[in-house]
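We modelled each protein-ligand pair independently. The example shown here corresponds to the flavin-adenine dinucleotide entry; the chain sequence is given first, followed by the ligand as SMILES.
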Amino acid sequence: MDSNLPEETQLLKNTVRRFVETELIPLERSLPDRPNSHDLPTDIRQPLEKKIRDLGLWAMEAPEDIGGAGLSILNHCVVMEEAYRSTAGRCLWTSLFFPVLHKLGTEAQKQKYLMPGLRGEFHGASAFSEPGAAGDLAGIQASCVRAAGGWVLNGTKCWISFAKTARYVLVLTRLQGTKRHEGLTWFIVDAGTPGFTVGRQQRMIHGQSTYELILQDCFVPDSQLLGEPGQGWAAGETALYRGRVTISARAIGIAGRCFDLMVEYSKQRYTFGQPISSRQAIQWMIADSAMELHASRLMVYDAAWRAQNGQDVRTQMAMIKTYTSEMVGRVVDRAVQVHGAAGLSDETIIERCYRDVRPMRIYEGTSEAMRSVIARNILAQNFMSGQ
Ligand SMILES: Cc1cc2nc3c(=O)[nH]c(=O)nc-3n(C[C@H](O)[C@H](O)[C@H](O)COP(=O)(O)OP(=O)(O)OC[C@H]3O[C@@H](n4cnc5c(N)ncnc54)[C@H](O)[C@@H]3O)c2cc1C
């Protein structure tokens, strides 16, 4: 399939692969006391960020006219696939560009929040999940009520990434008295606004922390309303598509690297006088992983290509999000098995990958929610096989 990529995409893929192999993979083992760390020390991180900017890959999905790289969806996917082959510096590629802010924001809001974010001056966070509703987004309860000159917000959010250091948070609320998809409304809440506090830290399996956010009679002026009241559902839904396809690309990158490590190790590890690669049990793990990886790559490139050509890809996005996030779990698990104890220790990157991939089946649409979308669309005949 790689050879069928457009030439420009293949060149980009090769460039990022070289960058990852020369700049990032060597770092994996050379950070003393920080094996397999998510974050890089500032003195290492900053020059790498500059190199990524020089490659034209900063804020990849943001349009060029606002300072992003403006990559097509397919090009964005191949960059993420290659980038995620290394555990070192996965944080470097985290773009905190919020499509919802770009889509609904006024010029003043974009100048104040979006542009400095793209320049790397500060970052924001996005808060829709709540203790009572996250996967079921239409069930959120945080409320907004009109007040003189602005709005009063109340409610609790949870699992919010980057909240502790965010300069502002995009908060999804509902107009009081509305139900389900109606009345959902976004606000931009500045850190430090009275009535808005960052609550307890929620540490995740892969080392990232999320946070609880509390809104208690938090007054925000009209200038902080993002879009029109009640416009929140449609705006948020479209923003998820690029998230799903790039998570799938990340899954392929991680699976691809672990697959390569598994193959290499199986050839050099001898037991009972033979390399373990000579054993059928090991060969089948390699074969199954190769098949699933190949299928995933074809599915993701196809969905990305269709999306950037304006096709309705809601079903395909749900398919690739589910298939690849489950595939990478199986491939990494086999890589652990082939490596034995080495796969569980921080002597290899595989334990890091094992932890990194588990959340992928949960965020941006659980596997179960994605299967519901697929089945619903098929049953409503919005999607036929072979399309
Ligand atoms: C690392 C990480 C970072 C996150 N960052 C953010 C963030 O920055 N901002 C933010 O707002 N949120 C964030 N989240 C929250 C994330 O969006 C939610 O975890 C996700 O939407 C799932 O919601 P939930 O955890 O409440 O699970 P639930 O929706 O409660 O689901 C629990 C289980 O029940 C299943 N289930 C639910 N409904 C059905 C159904 N109808 N039929 C069958 N099965 C069902 C689910 O598939 C799942 O297996 C983050 C989560 C993680 C793990």
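Residues 2-100 form a domain with the Butyryl-Coa Dehydrogenase, subunit A; domain 1 fold (CATH 1.10.540.10).
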